[in-house]
Write a structure and sequence with these properties.
The protein is α+β, with helices and mostly antiparallel strands. It has 18 helices and 35 strands. Strands 18, 19, 20, 21, 22, 28, 30, 32, 33, 34 and 35 form an eleven-stranded mixed β-sheet that branches. An eight-stranded antiparallel β-sheet has the order 12-11-17-8-9-16-13-14. A seven-stranded mixed β-sheet has the order 2-3-1-4-5-6-7, sandwiched between helices. It binds guanosine-5'-triphosphate (GTP) and magnesium ion.
Length: 639
């Protein structure tokens, strides 16, 4: 049986997981009904198996699966190790690491959107490792598809990335992952001529993606091996690129066997990122098989392995030969870019909703998270029941908070800040590439919005093959991105799509913009009445609905002016026997503005907190009473 290792990479939402799912269905190794039972979530996907992934409809962690496929042309059997990766930029570091396991990649590109910032990022990483790409022009079924223009854009991107010769003659598969078909023949993409399955893609995979260390494979040369035999003869080396966790056996190390062979009960050495070597004995080794794993008697160079029983294993460590421990060059572990304070919930509603509320419980949970969440950093603030938690972006930290609240935790989170870095004695801040696609009619609004937040236009063109769409690329400080998405949606009435990817660090340029609007603050505790909302109709937009409970100091809405305003929402109408003509009409209530966790995090200012409990997300002033706020303001005035 021959082996192929491939990662499926793309910009967010371009259809990686949907395509992976279809490959599972069409491999011939499952019964359709059995797979149907495993699908779920917003997009009905199998591979997005996490609770949060299903709810949000995005992939958060990269996942391995393995399908067997028989090539009818030759009768040969193959095992395809497929790695589905997340597309969101916050998880880019993980994509970079798991690419280490592959010899080739399916670069999925949306046939309307074309290459986007994250396409560029993941492709550049794949090329750096010597992976052979197959380009999939996906979602051909969309009426707005413009496949020929997108093929040109992909080619331009490869040239811009100075792709080597082997990558430039990439095969192109035109596909609809969702409809489960694909073809190499452009003429067959027309309706009526489309194939009914992904057979041509399966064939392209085994034809174009080299077997591990096949002679001439770019990945093999990058690792310094001319053939599989050479890799097998070398002493054991496994680069740990992911960690799985099981309650029974603890940490499970996943990675590619770069060289040598690993067997159960074998003595090995673990070389940590820091260079410490410890001799240990492996308990079990497993390979990926279908949607799970299967125990193996041995796993040899080129295959992907899950190793059980090695203690203290971490991402970036090498599992090496017991007597000849040679570490592989370390994989990158991303530095955090965003930080915020996690505090114990001390709101008047603390403890009403959650199971775990104390500083000790929150601290223990964060310590456990550090074991598998490599890009996370946690520091305990001395003396306070608070932790400074840093990660790769708002979504990275948002996912952690969301996971904790599901598990029954309560906490409060402060305004996120970007992490500044000293470079050659100059204080620098992270900057990002921001790509915005929008109809021509919104172009000037988008420009003034982004330029007004210290963005610089780098590049702009009409999107070829579209009617009147513009593609713009800006360079913008990460700080200016907080809250930008909401404003962008408002400014363009939901028409623009925007994406950003970390670019690097540059000297700090001035203060980030503040929230333009003030907030409405509850002045006393109680229940919200429709009557009060109606009376305050013109004061702004509310985040609460009739019947909600509020406490003093809670942020209940956005003021229509730039200062904060204390209001009372718990007044009800005085009941009288006399019906006043005309004034008894139903209350005017705007639908409350729904604020997701990330929207709240972007929204709050430095004197505010987001209170997160299993069932509620509320915003509040740090100081709940007006007196305290005044006192705090006075103290904050610089002498
Ligand atoms: N029209 C059309 N829509 C598709 C196709 N493939 C996927 N989609 C839709 O695109 C959306 C995103 O699909 P996913 O498979 O989750 O995309 P992804 O690339 O895995 O997304 P992330 O993992 O979050 O980056 C879903 O709404 C899919 O139904 C396709 O071939 N045609
Ligand atoms: Mg996905």
């Amino acid at each position: 049986m021959e082996l192929r290792n491939l990662a499926i990479i793309a910009h967010v939402d371009h259809g990686k997981t949907t395509l992976t799912d279809r490959l599972l269905y069409q491999s011939g190794m499952f019964r359709t009904e059995d797979l149907d039972k495993l699908a779920g979530g917003q997009h009905g996907l199998i591979m997005d198996s996490g609770d949060l992934e299903r709810e949000r409809g995005i992939t958060i962690t990269a996942k391995n699966c393995a399908v067997r496929w028989t090539d009818a042309r030759t009768g040969k059997d193959y095992k395809l190790n497929l790695i589905d990766t997340p597309g969101h930029a916050d998880f880019g570091g993980e994509v970079e690491r798991v690419l280490n396991m592959a010899d080739g990649c399916l670069l999925v590109v949306d046939s309307f959107e074309g290459p986007m910032p994250q396409t560029r990022f993941v492709l550049s990483k794949a090329l750096a490792l010597g992976l052979k790409p197959i380009v999939i022009i996906n979602k051909i079924d969309k009426p707005s598809a413009r496949p020929d223009a997108v093929v040109n854009e992909v080619f331009d991107l490869l040239v811009a990335l100075e792709a080597p010769e082997y990558a430039l003659d990439f095969p192109i598969v035109y596909a609809s992952g969702r409809e489960g078909w694909g073809t190499l023949d452009r003429a067959k993409t027309e309706e009526g001529k489309r194939p009914k399955d992904l057979l041509e893609l399966f064939q392209a995979i085994v034809d174009h993606i080299p077997a591990p260390y096949a002679p001439g494979s770019p990945r093999g040369s990058a690792a310094g091996f001319k053939s599989r035999e050479e890799a097998l003869a070398h002493s054991l080396q496994i680069m740990v690129t992911s960690i799985l966790y099981s309650d029974y056996v603890g940490r499970i190390a996943v990675g590619r066997v770069t060289a040598g062979t690993i067997r159960p009960s074998m003595p090995v050495s673990l070389v940590t990122r820091g260079g410490e070597v410890s001799r240990q004995r492996v308990l079990k080794v497993e390979v990926f098989e279908a949607l799970g794993r299967a125990e193996a008697k041995e796993v040899t160079a080129g295959d992907i392995v899950a190793v059980i029983g090695v203690e203290g294993v971490e991402i970036g460590a090498t599992i090496a030969d017991a007597d000849n421990p040679v570490a592989l060059p370390p994989v990158s572990v991303d530095e955090p870019t965003v930080t915020m304070a996690f505090r114990v919930n001390d709101s008047p509603f603390a403890g009403r909703d959650g199971k775990f509320v104390t500083g000790r419980q929150v601290g223990d949970r964060l310590t456990r998270e550090l074991e598998r969440n490599v890009a996370l950093r946690v520091e305990r603030e001395p003396g306070a029941d608070a932790f400074q938690v840093s990660g790769r972006g708002l979504m990275h930290l948002g996912v952690l908070i969301e996971t904790m609240r599901r598990e029954g935790y309560e906490l409060q989170v402060g305004k996120p800040r970007v992490i500044l870095k000293e470079v050659d004695g100059v204080t620098c801040e992270p900057v990002e590439t921001l790509a915005v696609d929008c109809p021509e009619s919104c172009q000037s609004d988008v420009m003034s919005l982004v330029l007004g937040r210290k963005g610089e236009l780098r590049h702009m063109d009409a999107k070829a093959g579209t009617s009147g769409w513009i593609h713009m690329e800006f360079k913008i400080p990460s700080r200016s991105l907080f809250g930008l998405r909401t404003m962008m949606l408002t400014t363009t009435r939901g028409e623009a799509v925007m994406y950003h990817t970390l670019l690097g660090y540059e000297p700090v340029r001035g203060e980030p913009p503040r929230r333009p609007a003030g907030v409405l603050i509850a002045g006393e505790p109680g229940q919200v009445f429709a009557y009060s909302l109606d009376r305050l109709y013109d004061r702004g937009d509310f985040f609460v609905s009739p019947g909600d409970e509020v406490y003093e100091g809670m942020v209940v809405g956005e003021h229509c002016k730039d200062n904060d305003l204390v209001i009372n929402l718990s007044h009800n109408k005085k009941l009288t026997n006399v019906r006043a003509a005309g004034s008894d009409d139903a209350a005017r209530i705007k639908p409350p503005r729904k604020m997701s966790l990330e929207a709240c995090l972007e929204y709050i200012e430095i004197d505010e907190l987001v209170e997160v409990t299993p069932n509620f997300i509320r915003m509040r002033k740090r100081h709940l009473t007006e007196n305290d706020r005044k006192r705090f303001d006075k103290q904050a005035v610089p002498a």
